[in-house]
Amino acid sequence: MPDPSTYRPATGTIPDAPGVYKFRDPGRRVIYVGKAKSLRSRLNSYFADVSALHPRTRQMVTTAGSVEWTVVGTEVEALQLEYNWIKEFDPRFNVRYRDDKTYPVLAVTLNEEYPRLHVYRGPRRKGVRYFGPYAHAWAIRETLDLLLRVFPARTCSAGVFKRHGQIGRPCLLGYIDKCSAPCVGRVSAEEHRGIVEDFCDFLAGKTDHLVRRLEREMAEASDELLFERAARLRDDAGALRRAMEKQAVVLGDGTDADVVAFAHDDLEAAVQVFHVRGGRVRGQRGWVVDRLEEGGEEGAGNPVTALVDQFLSQFYGDQAAMDDGSAGEGAESSPVPREVLVPELPDDAASIQDWLSGLRGARVALRVPQRGDKRALMETVERNAKEAFTQHKLRRAGDLTARSAALQELQDHLGLDSAPLRIECVDISHIQGSDVVASLVVFEDGLARKSEYRRFAIREAATEGDVAAIAEVTRRRFARHAGESAEQADPRPGIDPETGKPKRFAYPPNLYVVDGALPQAEAAAAVLSELGITDVAVVGLAKRLEEVWLPGDPDPAILPRTSEALYLLQRVRDEAHRFAITYHRQKRSKRLTASALDDVPGLGQTRKSVLIKHFGSLKRLRAASVEEIESVPGIGPGTARAVHTALAGGTQDTTAAGGQERQQ
């Protein structure tokens, strides 16, 4: 574990100016990005008394191997640069406010001749007006279903709109009066756009005059004895009132604001955001994130100010990145609202407010509500944050504790210098030496990181057994990392010199697990020794008794059956087995399909593909009669009989060997 004193900048070398700094680990990977009004004050605080730091901050500075900084002219520039670097490098110790889903919005395509209303997820587009975000797509569809009887605008795709225009008949919505059917000319483009603009006015909060207009038209129709029209207008007004009831007014002055609140303990924090548009709550979001307190005096007295600072810069930076800058009606369509209400103002509130104003293209107010409706709404959001945090702790307490205990137990049982935060596991899969493949899965902090998974088709060692296959996979996985470190003597190993980003798989794991006993573990260890890699621990996990084998040790280590460490190793091994089996079955299926039809005279690759596509699988093709095969376009009677004979004389059950699939 690096000692912070070994890379502490020399006294007087850090400038007393605003800027952005990066902590890098010994492999030159960026692990934390921060900003400061005074780089000297902030960075010195990280090295003054490491034992007094927040636990996660202490872990960060003891994981880092170097620190560097960039001086900027203003605090706003520092804020922008910090956001860009966090987005580029994805540092592991930075708090990231990422949703586990994409929140939908209601999009109105005002840039089309006949605007369309539809559910949308993704980046903002020019000329489209957006309402939301909503918590669920069904909430948008429910709102549309209520309002389409009053505002019968087009909701169909371009293809459906064009097709019904060609056939001269509207779709079902046109027949039940939930669409004005502009596709067949029931209304002109101008009339349809008027309907859509009324719809937008209603969602924007201009509701009272629309209801009054319907009531006035209803009275006029009744006076003229047009009772059917009056009844229809009465029902329309009722539908508008029901839609208004579903979005109760929380701010009577029609305010556009985001209300942000936090609940936290020493290690984690929950954040809740209510999106208020036109005085009504249009959406709600929430996250639970790890806390990392920055050094220095800024934010040290009140942890909420640091959370507010981090949240505002990352959340609205990401929102603005989704917007092309011209999506609709200028500032009114911006994802940044007119007001952002927070529980505490950050120390650089003025800079953040200027930055948010630049993103919106108009003035943004950042403030703490003190009284009235806004204060009452803030208290509601705070209660939601506390409730979400309580539920999170109830759900995650066992899992989080178990993962931490597992990593600590692995360190103790295996005699490692530190807990194995990154674990990689390799597994070999084949059937009696055919279609030999391997998988490599990655777990970080006890959780699977599927984006890092790799699979290998074994080449040289395909006929030499599992031990040789383990050696080949290990050599291929570590060869590039070892070669770059030894040959290039790059001062920034693992970093692409052109892009400055980490290269793929440039960093070794803390623990390398192979499925097998002592021979497999020693084969992997021998390859690492040959490549000059000495900082990776290797173990083998034998399936029969779940024994943990260490290279060079004649006796296995037996972990207690109730051990969280053993459970973690089993999960890693089982995931590698699953991934290897999936790849093996894919390869075997392709090989069997091709080989079963290879001997049929006159049957080329094209007609093989046609047959498999027609029947769906080789099993169904084998069960088909000659007449059924002959019915496939391009297959004559002679070829059909030849295919049927070839498959009937071959292996009847290619899945019987599946029971022999094993994991070595």
UniProtKB/TrEMBL annotation:
Localization in the cell: Cytoplasm
SUPFAM superfamilies named in the record: C-terminal UvrC-binding domain of UvrB (SSF46600), GIY-YIG endonuclease (SSF82771), RuvA domain 2-like (SSF47781)
GO biological process: nucleotide-excision repair; SOS response
Keywords (A to Z) from UniProt: Coiled coil, Cytoplasm, DNA damage, DNA excision, DNA repair, Excision nuclease, SOS response
Region (Disordered): 480-501
Keyword flag DNA repair: yes
Major localisation: cytoplasm
Main function: The UvrABC repair system catalyzes the recognition and processing of DNA lesions. UvrC both incises the 5' and 3' sides of the lesion. The N-terminal half is responsible for the 3' incision and the C-terminal half is responsible for the 5' incision.
Name the UniProt record assigns to this protein: UvrABC system protein C
